[in-house]
Design brief:
mainly alpha; 84% helix; Growth Hormone, Chain: A; globular; 2 domains
Length: 383
């Protein structure tokens, strides 16, 4: 293996993994300011986030055909530009309709970036016969940290979301001329192989992995899209403090993902996933039942640490299940998991509008408990 080539390819791909995390972190950390700017209520915010989810899933469904026709490198270059532009347009919205329309555009970009960047990562692993997906997903989480921290900084300085997005995303774009040409051309056999997969039904284990991933992503989405609002409107935290929610969550996620492979080798899939799920449950309990914003931030950090290893384990176990192609299993888990991330948080908005945000987030606590129970499927199918 040519180590220098592998390092460069991995770094270039990591640059694009940062993009959706950065965009998501910026959008969610400035959500309180955008809510005020557009004079939207909780139900309208929920509907806007639903638009984001619907457009993202639409992009996920159509991404395979687009990548097969034009290649993942071209789709990643174009979709990342669309996503950056859409986030900037979101910060210029003056009412809920404009915010909803720009979030639709952001969702399309986010969905296409997600599939195409993972396709690039898989091809790097295959070409150089060396794992890199854990590092790449850590780059995504790092983007979330960066977006959230800069959101907190700009909120503390009293600067509006547009200035925030323009400065941060403008700096990010400066590195694009180096990274974009280094994306890999899709292997000729990749799309053909995917198109020739059999239509046989999937084992229950693979479907259960997808459902657990869906729950894990739903919990993560509730943190990103409602955490800052919970601290600001319910716990009485300042906008600057509230903007730190996704940062606390993402920092813990990054650190644990960097150590995830070593922990998996030491503990095994079941114990690591169960321990992570229990830690997530404890963190959510801390968020809901303690009034101090600092304690809530600690709770969100615990949730980030707990959730970090779970989804990679589920993808790995589903993809390595005997008799099922890795591509087919990964596709099912991806669709289910991102459905949880994109649809669950908006639905919380409608519940929050009727019952209050604190009561709505009790649903998240129940989801954490289900996740704890669900990890026992990994014990039955231990590796």
């Amino acid at each position: 293996m040519k180590w220098a080539e592998f390092t460069i390819a991995r770094a270039a791909c990591a640059y694009f993994f940062i993009c959706p995390g950065l965009a998501y972190g910026l959008l969610t950390s400035r959500l309180p300011a955008l809510k005020t700017q557009t004079e939207a209520d909780e139900a309208q915010i929920g509907l806007i986030l639903l638009c984001l989810g619907l457009s993202s899933v639409t992009a996920l469904i159509g991404s395979g055909w687009l990548i097969a026709r034009w290649g993942s490198a071209l789709i990643l270059r174009l979709a990342s530009l669309v996503l950056v532009l859409a986030i900037i347009l979101c910060t210029l919205a003056s009412d809920s309709v404009q915010l909803g329309l720009t979030c639709i555009l952001a969702g399309l970009g986010m969905g296409l970036v997600d599939v195409s960047m993972n396709t690039q990562g898989i091809q790097i692993e295959r070409r150089y016969a060396s794992p890199c997906m854990s590092l790449l997903h850590a780059a995504y989480s790092f983007g979330g940290v960066l977006g959230s921290l800069t959101g907190a900084l700009f909120a503390g300085l009293g600067l509006n979301p547009f200035i925030n997005a323009a400065v941060v995303l403008g700096a990010y774009i400066c590195f694009r001329p180096w990274a974009a040409p280094k994306l890999m051309t899709d292997m000729p056999s990749e799309t053909i192989t995917q198109q020739q997969k059999s239509g046989r039904s999937l084992p229950l284990f693979v479907i259960l992995c997808g459902l657990l991933a869906m729950i894990a992503y739903a919990v993560e989405g509730s943190v990103a899209e409602w955490g800052s609002l919970l601290l600001h409107t319910v716990k009485g935290a300042s906008e600057q403090t509230a903007a730190l929610v996704f940062a606390a969550f993402s920092i813990a996620t990054v650190l644990c993902r960097l150590a995830g492979d070593r922990l998996r080798s030491s503990w095994g899939d079941f114990l690591l996933a169960l321990g992570g799920a229990v830690l997530t449950l404890c963190g959510m309990s801390l968020v809901l039942f303690f009034a101090d914003p600092a304690a809530c931030l600690v709770g969100y950090a615990l949730m980030g640490a707990g959730l970090a290893p779970i989804v990679p384990i589920l993808f790995s176990r589903a993809g390595s299940y005997l008799g099922v192609s890795a591509g087919k299993a990964s596709a099912i888990v991806s669709i289910l998991s991102y459905s949880g991330l994109l649809f669950f948080p908006p639905l919380l908005g409608f519940v929050a509008h009727k019952e209050g945000l604190s009561d709505a987030l009790l649903i998240v606590l129940a989801a954490c408990a289900i996740l704890c129970s669900g990890t026992f499927i990994l014990r039955k199918n231990a590796k």
